[in-house]
Amino acid sequence: MAAQKEKLIIFDTTLRDGEQSPGVTLNNEEKVEIARHLSRLGVDVIEAGYPMASHGDFDAVHRIAKEVGPLMEGREKIGRPAVIAGLARATPGDIKRCAEAIEPAPLKRIHCFLATSDIHLKYKLKITREECIERGIAAVQLAKSLCGDVEFSPEDAGRSDRDFLCQVLGKMIEAGATTLNIPDTVGYNLPEEYGELIAYLKKNTPGGDKVVWSTHCHNDLGLATANSLAGVQNGARQVEVAMNGIGERAGNTALEEVVMAIHTHPDAFPVYHTINTPMICRTSQLVSNLSGMIIQPNKAIVGRNAFLHESGIHQDGMLKNKTTYEIITPETVGVFNESLVLGKHSGRNAFKDHCAKLGFPNMPDAEFQKTFEDFKALCDKKKKVSDGDILALLSNQITSG
Ligand code: KIV
Ligand code: ZN
């Protein structure tokens, strides 16, 4: 009999690691709107930020915990709201501040990290391996006393000594960590190597069978998605991802790529996901519009060209049968209809209804009125107003709101 598939936990870090992309600064209104979309998209955990970074970051995490933490809209098949997580270094100050920020959320998590590679211990933290273990234990114990759900990440795990990692991680389990996340912080690992690392840690860490193992891969060599999928095939049951793959340097693993790889190849993975895939493209557009991080046209799944066919041979094949050149239907990921969706004769109700379909239900009256006026003005200038245009207007509204 085939083994029962397990649920893959989608941990989204668009608002934390993603926001660390050079050039990205989101205001708190924008962060809350992105978090709302992530909740409707069906992510299991929203890492809302790093509360110790600034008062603004603390407020953003607190608002998301309060306003998005309880939301159930679009999450019926999941049956629970998103867990709201905050990041903390392994220091009492960070951990207490994080616990305060996530406090209003019904489901919350403290994500505590501490570097374990010899390079980081020697040059960055200037501590010994023994001191690293002591610092980690104290941090996780404190986090556990403030929040039942504690995740621990050994930063730069991808370049850390494996047996030292097993030792550290075993102690973190003893101290109360329930999720162990394995960051390839500098995007150095190869897929086979990273998959093997997950399998090794899971097998050789004392208590390793009692916790959830998680991937966190950076894209410096363009391998983040392949590495994350290798992690899942080797026992990880959580993936840390960001919408459009935004993040430090070359970015984080792209949410849409991991989800659609598993969606397209269900037999290749021992897991299933509960993401509302038709929400993918509108969430991607929102993140791009608000963050200012333009999506490359040939980006997998969410790029403008991802579902376009240019050559005569391909177009001919598509006209005969779409499966000739299409492995995912555009509707599966909610690709925008680029044809005219609404025009200058459209009424207020039709426009309101359409905004709701695009992921903006229950807009406050003043915001809706302004967007409607902008829409009418655009209709006078443009022959075709697409969903992408309407989303841009809605995003502007949030930015200036
Ligand atoms: O890349 C990394 O190591 C991180 C940790 C803080 C989880 O983002
Ligand atoms: Zn990272």
TrEMBL record:
GO function term, MF aspect, one: 2-isopropylmalate synthase activity
* Pathway as given in its UniProt record: Amino-acid biosynthesis; L-leucine biosynthesis; L-leucine from 3-methyl-2-oxobutanoate: step 1/4
List the keywords (alphabetical): Amino-acid biosynthesis, Branched-chain amino acid biosynthesis, Leucine biosynthesis, Metal-binding, Transferase
Q: Which domain of life is it from?
A: Eukaryota
GO biological process annotation, one example: L-leucine biosynthetic process
**Does the keyword section mention Transcription?**
no
Domain (Pyruvate carboxyltransferase): give its ranges: 8-281
Query: Any idea of its EC number?
Result: 2.3.3.13
**Similarity comment text for this entry:** Belongs to the alpha-IPM synthase/homocitrate synthase family. LeuA type 1 subfamily.
Protein name per the record: 2-isopropylmalate synthase
Q: Which species?
A: Bifiguratus adelaidae
